[in-house]
């Protein structure tokens, strides 16, 4: 902590301190008590100076020593201060004020440490998002170095990775022209000394005994569970301060993120190579086993169909006896016209066309997706006598892929990854078109937010809002609820959709209680002016859930009277209150302690509704 900024007026409340001194003045009549800042200014002064001209005045001067620092002085002037009972009162006052200052300093340090930790976590989170979304191993070193230079001041830097021969190679670097040659001259001979598996800071006298403008180097390795992939190195000139432990800590955290990203990029490259190899093998095997696993149609040099196997009959919805000997353009009107040019190319070049995909509409099947492999058909003299068409039906696969993509795009924004994976394991479980379903709906809204937002700068308002909304979202996702939407400073969540949750109402109540508890913990770290509270409304009942909107713009959400009820309840709730409708209460009454609020008129309902306030869970 910057001690220069610590003073009495920053640590003590002037009004409360004055009241304390006034109380002590009762024990020291005709005495003046003052608290003096280190710069000589009077922070607080109170008391009744002696009017007795013959009185012998004395004074006490007691500095406040806290954590090896002097923070102001207690000065008392008055008659007969050396009497035992007065000396005891003076030392008692000094001790009390010292305790108050110590506690205030501790709170100040804790608040600053918490704020710095939050900024550090937020910074590293943003960096992690930037680096870990990149799967290009050539781009990652540049991204890592760019982010390092953004969060830690450095005059030069480099990212080093091990090559196939296990040698460290510079993959990215930066340095001003006047420093680049010196920088490389220093680090190159000392790779083994600088770059081991532990982070460290080296000063110039540890690097070289020659004159150099480089003052210090900080190194952090890219470590995985099995090996050290390389590392990042930053340098400062002698004109700049040496790297601090905080700088080293940030660099290590960045290096950890970088190691994960580099390892992921390597795994992705391996998977891609394997996929390409498997794809090549599959194409080869398709040609070998086409007549068994795929539909096969052979066409002679005159364009007449000579062969149509069982798989082709099924795929094209045709019978072989009605097609053999018929022109393919006539008997396959939907397909034939689309592939005339391909067949002519195969005949002319005597080279196959593989992997050609097209979409056609068949009378008995509707829209189908086919992958075609068209190859020259050779006779015993290796003369082209027609073509062989191998058909693979991709219709179901494309439908499944479309369904999986639709499920992923719909729910990745609303639920935790585990729920998305459950949905993707069986996409048919989700009906996106709309279905009647029993759900629990939660609305949570920050009270007095409009008035609060008018008092601060927009950036500060957004920071405080995000702190509170983040805790609300985490509480919902922890109970596997679906985060439906943000509505200004409010959130809407739905439970029991898209996947069934037998205890969905209890999950909703637990999420609301967790939300309020974590908000209360947050308030211990915030000033009173930034302490906001949620009013929560929960309603259980039948609603319609599904994709609501237009074909191009829509959201997976819930609509119905229970949604409206939850909205009205949360509008009725005060700061820190959780209100339930009667249906929700009956579902959880054995698990919660509530206070019945009686019949309350709610907008849109002709009769008042019975409302309950949740106090806690049953123990």
Features:
single chain, 4 domains, Beta-Lactamase, five-stranded antiparallel sheet, 29% strand, alpha+beta, 619 residues
What do you see in this structure?
β21 (592-600) and β22 (609-617) form a beta hairpin. This protein starts with 7 loop residues before the first helix and ends with a strand. The mean pLDDT is 81. It contains 20 helices and 22 strands. The protein is flat and about 135 Å long. Helix content is 43%, strand content 29%. The strands form four sheets. Strands 15, 16, 17, 18, 19, 20, 21 and 22 form an eight-stranded mixed beta sheet that branches. Strands 6-5-9-8-7 form a five-stranded antiparallel beta sheet, sandwiched between helices. It has a five-stranded antiparallel beta sheet with strand order 11-10-14-13-12, with helices on both faces. The protein folds into four domains: 3-111, Beta-Lactamase; 134-269, Beta-Lactamase; 290-393, Beta-Lactamase, CATH 3.30.450.20; 431-617, Alpha-Beta Plaits (2-Layer Sandwich), CATH 3.30.70.1230. α3 packs antiparallel against α4 (140-151), α4 packs antiparallel against α8 and α17 (458-478) runs antiparallel to α18. It is α+β, with helices and mostly antiparallel strands.
Task: Summarize the model shown.
This protein is an alpha+beta fold. It has 20 helices and 22 strands. The strands form 4 sheets. Strands 15, 16, 17, 18, 19, 20, 21 and 22 form an 8-stranded mixed β-sheet that branches. Strands 6-5-9-8-7 form a 5-stranded antiparallel β-sheet, with helices on both faces. Strands 11-10-14-13-12 form a 5-stranded antiparallel β-sheet, with helices on both faces.
């Amino acid at each position: 902590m910057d001690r220069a900024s610590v003073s009495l007026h920053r640590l003590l409340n002037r009004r409360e301190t004055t009241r304390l001194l006034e109380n002590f003045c009762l024990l020291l009549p005709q005495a003046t008590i003052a608290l003096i800042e280190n710069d000589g200014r009077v922070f607080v002064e109170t008391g009744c100076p002696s009017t007795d001209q013959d009185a012998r005045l004395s004074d006490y001067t007691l500095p406040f020593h806290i954590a090896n620092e002097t923070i102001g002085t207690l000065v008392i002037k008055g008659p007969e201060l050396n009497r035992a009972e007065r000396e005891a009162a003076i030392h008692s006052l000094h001790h009390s004020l010292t305790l108050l200052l110590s506690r205030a300093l501790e709170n100040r340090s804790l608040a600053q440490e918490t704020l710095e930790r939050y900024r550090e976590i937020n910074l590293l989170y943003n960096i992690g998002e930037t680096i870990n979304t990149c799967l290009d191993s050539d781009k990652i070193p540049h991204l890592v170095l760019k982010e390092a230079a953004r969060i830690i001041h450095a005059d030069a830097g480099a990212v080093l990775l091990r090559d196939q021969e296990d040698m460290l190679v510079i993959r990215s670097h930066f340095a001003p022209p006047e420093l680049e040659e010196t920088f490389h001259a220093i680090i190159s001979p000392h790779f083994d000394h600088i770059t081991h598996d532990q982070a460290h800071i080296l000063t110039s006298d540890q690097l070289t005994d020659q004159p150099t403008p480089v003052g210090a180097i900080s190194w952090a390795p890219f470590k995985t569970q099995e090996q050290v992939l390389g590392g990042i190195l930053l340098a400062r000139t002698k004109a700049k301060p040496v790297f601090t432990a905080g700088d080293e800590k940030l660099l290590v955290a960045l290096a950890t993120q970088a190691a994960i990203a580099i390892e992921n990029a390597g795994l992705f490259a391996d998977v891609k190579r394997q996929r390409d190899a498997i794809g090549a093998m599959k194409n080869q095997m398709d040609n070998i086993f086409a007549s068994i696993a795929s539909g096969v149609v052979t066409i002679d040099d005159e364009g007449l169909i000579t062969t149509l196997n069982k798989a082709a009959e099924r795929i094209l919805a045709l019978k072989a006896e009605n097609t053999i000997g018929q022109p393919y353009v006539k008997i396959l009107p939907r397909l034939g016209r689309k592939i005339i040019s391909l067949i002519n190319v195969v005949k002319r070049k005597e080279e196959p066309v593989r992997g050609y995909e097209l979409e056609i509409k068949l009378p008995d099947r509707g829209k189908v997706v086919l992958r075609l492999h068209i190859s020259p058909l050779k006779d015993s003299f290796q003369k082209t006598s027609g073509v062989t068409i191998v058909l693979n039906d991709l219709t179901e696969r494309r439908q499944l892929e479309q369904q999986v993509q639709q499920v992923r795009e719909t729910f990745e924004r609303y639920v935790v990854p585990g729920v998305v994976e459950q949905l993707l394991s069986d996409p048919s479980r989700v009906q996106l078109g709309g279905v009647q379903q029993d759900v629990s709906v939660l609305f949570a809204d920050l009270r007095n937010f409009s008035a609060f937002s008018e008092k601060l700068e927009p950036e500060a308002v957004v920071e405080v809002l995000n702190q509170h909304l983040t805790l609300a979202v985490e509480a919902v996702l922890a109970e596997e609820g679906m985060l439906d939407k943000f509505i200004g400073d409010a959130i809407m969540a739905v439970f029991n959709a898209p996947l069934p949750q037998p205890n969905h109402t209890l999950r909703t109540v637990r999420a609301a209680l967790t939300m309020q508890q974590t908000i209360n913990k947050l308030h211990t770290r915030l000033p009173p002016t930034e302490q906001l509270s949620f009013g929560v409304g929960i309603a259980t009942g039948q609603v319609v859930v599904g994709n609501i909107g237009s074909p191009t713009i829509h959201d997976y959400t819930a609509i119905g009277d229970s949604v409206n009820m939850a909205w009205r309840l949360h509008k009725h709730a005060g700061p820190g209150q959780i209100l339930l409708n009667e249906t929700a209460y009956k579902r959880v009454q054995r698990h919660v302690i509530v206070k019945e609020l009686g019949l309350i008129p709610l907008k849109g309902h002709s009769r008042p509704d019975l409302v309950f306030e949740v106090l806690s869970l049953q123990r």
